[in-house]
Each structure stands twice: as C-alpha cells, then as structure tokens.
User: Which sequence fits this backbone?
C-alpha cells in the first residue's frame, strides 16, 4: 500500500427530513447567500423550505449557476459575496452548484482578477494565495459528482473544463436527504449512477499495490451500484434504492477508497473534453470513454481487470483474455441498460472531429 494522508472535515447529515437541521448547522445571525442552479430547486419548493429553516437570518439568493458552471457566472456571485458581506454560503443543487460555490468562495476572497485562480488548475490553490474563505455548506439534490464531500470543483473557462481545489474548499456540512433527489429526471439519475461507478473504477482499475481493503470498498460500491442502478431509475421514490445510490456516490469520491492506491483519471480528462466540445453530459461522456479505454489499456490493467471480472461480474469461465473481454462488455451493457448511450456516433460526434479533441487535450497538458 502507498503512503497517504486522509483528511476530510465535511460533516455529513444524512437521511429523511434532515433539511430541518439547517437551523443548527448554519451560524446564527449569519448573512447567508443561497446559491442554486437553473430553477429546479425553486420549482420543486426546496428553496422555500430552505428559507423556512434559515429562520430570521438575512438570506440573499444567487440563482442561474448552469450545469458545467461557467467562470463568468461564478465571478458575478463572488462579487455579491464581497459587496454584501456574506458570511455563509449555502449551495443548493448538484455537482455544478456545489463546485461553483467552491470557486465563488475562493474568488470572493482573492483580491485580484479571479481568472488568475486557473493558474492553480490541476494543483491546489495555495494558502498563501487564498488564506481564508467564507465557509459554505451544501444541500445535495443530485447524487453523482461527489462534490458534497470533497474539496474539488470543475469550472468551465475559455472553452475548457478546469479542476480547481484548495484545502479550504471542503463543505462544512452537506445535507444528503435522498428524498430531495426524487424530482430528478431519469437521465440525470442514470448519469449519477455512471459518474459514481466511474469515480470508483478510476481508483480501482489500475494495478495492485496490496490495498486489500480499498479494493473491497471499491468492489462494494460497484456491486451496490449494479444492484440499485436500474431500480432507482425505474422507482424514483424507492427510498432504500435511492439512499444507497446517494451514499455510494458520496463515498466514491470523498478520498477514502483511493487513499494509498494509484488512480487513473484518463476517462475523466477525456470526458471533460467531450463535454467542453460537444455539450455531452458529464456522466454520458464517461460512459463513452471507459469501455474502449479499458480495451486499449488492458495490458497495463490486466491483473485488476481480472479481479474486476471475477469479483464484480462473477465471470469464472474462459481464458484470461475472454474474461476481460466479457467484463468490458458487461460494463458497457450496464451503462446501456441504464439508458446511457456509449458510442460517440450516438451523440452526433464524427470521426473527423477526433483530432480536435486531441488538440484540446494537448492544450490542457493532459496527454
Ligand atoms: O440547474 P437546475 O435547474 O437545478 O437543474 C439541474 C441541472 O440541469 C438538474 N437537477 C439537479 N438536482 C435536481 C435537478 N432537477 C430536478 N430535481 C433535482 N433534485 O440536474 C441538472 C444537472 O445538474 P449538475 O449539477 O450539472 O449535475 P451533476 O451533479 O452531475 O454535476 C456535474 C458537474 O460536476 C462536475 C462535472 O464536471 C460537472 O461540471 N464534477 C465534479 C466533481 C467534483 N467536484 O469532485 C467530480 C466529477 O467527476 C465531475 O467532474
Ligand atoms: Zn465524474
């Protein structure tokens, strides 16, 4: 097992009816900025409930954070935080709103042009650059990105998607009430299952380093996602299935399962370019990339692919190569059964557009 640090200060508040805990979780007397997306939280009544539980605190709103949140929008929100002396931010939404909030709080505390922060994309914004931020919490409405319990965010800037993080961008708390996700359209639930699955494979399908527990944790998440994935799409108000998806999704990217083991985030880097170039949803972009990536990298990933075939897909017959073939096929079939297409052509991307993607990867230093 490799050496590692594991630090995660986010307080998880899980379960039905936990939104009421906002009153205990948000500092009394705080001026609170509620950040949200394109309107689902208002339409389904969640924002009204948030206002109720925030009681007599001064509450401001900033809506319109788009999926794949854009720098320009977030810079405007940062200006509100500064000018209105906001002292707590509450992100209400999915990965995009929570990621966006991480950037908002960094930008609000950074004295210069906030686009400077992209100098620290792929690394961490140093504490010397932004030594403190306005604290924030999250109310999660979409289980997928894992942003509710990590310090990373992915921000769209100048036609690219850039990861940004800092030691200060962990949510203070995240409320995970599976019932708040019942209003999701099936396509977003499917995207969430795929994203959580592939966050796990990015930390599992590499090479063995003797991380026996980490492997079992990853396999537990993958098996659970296979168990509940189709069910939670077909039965959106089945609490048990949805609760398991929510917790899998959070644990897949809170740092635990990959501590002490190597990661391979190539599916994400390629997927980000697909999203930036063609607007393909994050989860969909990953479902396109993972099966062929496993095929191309099969010799490097051989031992873990065989372990995956046996322990996750229960494949016991055939030669080693046949087992790997079948495991990759079963992975693709799983995504397809969730309703997520896995071929570029099904999203209208043509072969002659591939070289452009390679150029984008090069320009982002991701080859
Ligand atoms: O904007 P609104 O109107 O709220 O609608 C959203 C949005 O259109 C809707 N939605 C969310 N909760 C809902 C709901 N609709 C009905 N009922 C609800 N309860 O869903 C749509 C998609 O939301 P978004 O937040 O964009 O999705 P997701 O959570 O999948 O986040 C995707 C973003 O996360 C980044 C991705 O790159 C992408 O930008 N990622 C962040 C990571 C991280 N912070 O660690 C890692 C991930 O790999 C990922 O890259
Ligand atoms: Zn992801």
Assistant:
């Amino acid at each position: 097992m490799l050496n590692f640090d594991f630090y995660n200060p986010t307080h998880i508040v899980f379960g039905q009816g936990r939104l009421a805990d906002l009153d205990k979780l948000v500092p009394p007397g705080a001026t609170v900025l509620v950040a949200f997306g394109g309107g689902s939280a208002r339409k389904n009544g969640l924002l009204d409930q948030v206002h109720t539980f925030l009681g007599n605190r001064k509450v401001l709103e900033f809506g319109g954070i788009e999926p794949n949140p854009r720098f320009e929008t977030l810079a405007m929100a940062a200006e509100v935080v500064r000018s209105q002396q906001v002292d707590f931010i509450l992100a209400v939404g999915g990965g995009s709103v929570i990621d966006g909030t991480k950037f908002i709080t960094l930008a609000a505390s950074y004295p210069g042009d906030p686009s400077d922060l992209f100098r620290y994309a792929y690394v961490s914004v140093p504490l010397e650059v932004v030594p403190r931020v306005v604290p924030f919490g999250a109310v999660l409405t979409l289980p997928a990105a894992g942003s509710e319990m990590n310090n990373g965010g992915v921000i769209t800037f100048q036609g690219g998607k850039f990861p940004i993080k800092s030691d200060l961008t962990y949510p203070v708390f995240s409320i995970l009430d599976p019932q708040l996700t019942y209003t999701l359209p099936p396509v977003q639930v499917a995207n969430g299952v795929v994203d959580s699955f592939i966050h796990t494979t990015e930390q599992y399908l590499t090479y063995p380093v003797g991380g026996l527990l980490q492997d079992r944790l990853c396999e537990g998440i993958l098996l659970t996602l296979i168990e509940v994935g189709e069910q939670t799409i077909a039965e959106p108000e089945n609490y048990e299935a949805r609760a398991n998806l929510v917790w899998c999704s959070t644990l897949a990217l809170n740092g635990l399962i990959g501590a002490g083991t190597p990661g391979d985030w190539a599916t994400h880097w390629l997927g980000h370019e697909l999203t930036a170039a063609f607007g393909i949803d994050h989860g969909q972009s990953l479902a396109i990339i993972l099966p062929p990536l496993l095929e191309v990298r099969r010799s490097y990933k051989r031992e873990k692919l065989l372990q995956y075939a046996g322990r996750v897909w229960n494949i016991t017959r055939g030669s080693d190569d046949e087992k790997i073939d079948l495991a990759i096929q079963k992975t693709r079939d799983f995504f397809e059964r969730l309703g997520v297409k896995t071929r570029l052509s099904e999203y209208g991307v043509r072969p002659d557009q591939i070289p452009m993607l390679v150029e984008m990867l090069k320009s982002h230093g991701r080859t």
The beta strands are 11-14, 31-36, 58-62, 88-93, 136-140, 152-157, 160-165, 173-176.
